Amino acid sequence: MLEINTDLFEATSHSPSLVDLVGYDQAQQVIDFCFIANPYYPTPAMVDELVRQLPVLIKRYPSSNPLVSARHLATVLRVDADHLIVGNGATELITELCYHLVPTIGVPIPTFGEYIEKIDPARLHLYPLQVASDYQLDLTAYLAWLHAEALHAALVINPHNPTGQLFSLAEMQAFLAAASDLDLVVVDESFIDFASEEIPSLLHAAHRYPNLVIVRSMSKHCGVPGLRLGYCYTSNDRLIAHLRNSLPTWNLNTLAEFYLSLLPATDADYQAARLRVIQDMRWLHAQLGAIDGITVYPTGANFVCFRIDTGRTARQLQRRLLVEHSMYVRDCSNKLGMDRYHIRVATQGHEQDRRLIQVLPGALQLA
């Protein structure tokens, strides 16, 4: 049985790092279902190339021209590089957008913790989602609330974190059209590439909505959280200028820049990996839905959120799976606005997912 440092669970609104919890050696033996990142990308050949270039890269300064990396990314996204900002993780961009640019912003909760922690409390207005409605966001009701509160900006995460709720492209476009009077609408699409074979992103419609900024974390869809890469896209020239001026000159490291340069030549590999994740997710969702004692929410992401109905709390289930089965799942209890009975699991590939399905029914029992 694993020994874990339980004090770490109280020290963050995120999931403690698996390495911090159990140490480097034991972490290798644990399946990390908290890790909501593409398990099939980057390819082994890309990793080998990163390793080969490492001695050179760590002795060089990054580029002082942000458009160099933006052009590599824009090629695979098929967007205008001049309207693309690459950040040192999405959190760098979230901080700048939400903390400095708007006097007030509405945020549905529960949500990704950075959208709460990086916004001045005086500017932050929370929109609680209801457990009786499975924490699903109604965009029409949300917009009515934003207008009633006379707020200047809004956040929508699509697919939502932690529930996985997905809005169609048509639903998002209708919302943006009705929200045109807001100063800013932040749409986080960090998981949108796993929504379906045809990606329902707003990227190619952004020119229609001058108050829209799309934020994405590359940790998720590209599987590189350690490189700290994220980006935002907007047609708003004023907003682009502000972000370019506010970010540090060398906000990306050389390893991250080199990784971005590999993307155009490996886009076919990425698309194959993305489709493989979608297939794994559909299998995992169906298998979880057949287990007694949990209520599984619909998802358009590479993770599934479910409610425990046996009386066992999310914390109890998380600890049991970790200590007895070497599986680490996300206890959502520390997400503001969520109760004590919700777990999030991200697909880690079919074989790893199958092992979770085998042990979960027993772990759910109170005895």
Describe what this molecule looks like in 3D.
The protein has 367 residues and is α/β, with parallel strands linked by helices. It has two domains: 6-42 and 268-364, Aspartate Aminotransferase, domain 1 (Alpha-Beta Complex); 46-266, 3-Layer(aba) Sandwich (Aspartate Aminotransferase, domain 2), CATH 3.40.640.10. 39% of the residues lie in helices and 15% in strands. The protein has helices at residues 18-27, 44-57, 66-77, 90-100, 114-117, 139-148, 169-178, 218-221, 237-246, 254-262, 267-289, 314-325, 350-364, and strands at 31-32, 84-87, 105-109, 124-128, 153-157, 184-188, 212-217, 230-233, 294-296, 303-308, 327-328, 330-331, 342-346. It has a seven-stranded mixed beta sheet, sandwiched between helices. Strand 5 (153-157), helix 7 (169-178) and strand 6 (184-188) form a beta-alpha-beta unit. Helix 2 (44-57) runs antiparallel to helix 10 (254-262). It is globular, with a radius of gyration of 20 Å.
Question: Any idea what the radius of gyration is?
Answer: 20 Å
What percent of residues adopt helix (DSSP H or I)? Answer: 25-40%
How many domains? The number is 2
CATH topology of the largest domain: Aspartate Aminotransferase, domain 2
- Oligomeric state of the chains present here: single chain
What average pLDDT do the residues reach?
93
CATH architecture of the largest domain: 3-Layer(aba) Sandwich
Estimated structural class: alpha/beta
Q: Terminal Cα separation, in Å?
A: 18 Å
Tell me the total number of β-strands: 13
CATH class group of the largest domain: Alpha Beta
Shape: globular
Number of helices: 13
* Element string (H = helix, E = strand): HEHHEHEHEHEHEEHEHHHEEHEEEH
Order of strands, main sheet, comes to 2-8-7-6-5-3-4
CATH superfamily of the largest domain: Type I PLP-dependent aspartate aminotransferase-like (Major domain)
Largest sheet: 7 strands, mixed
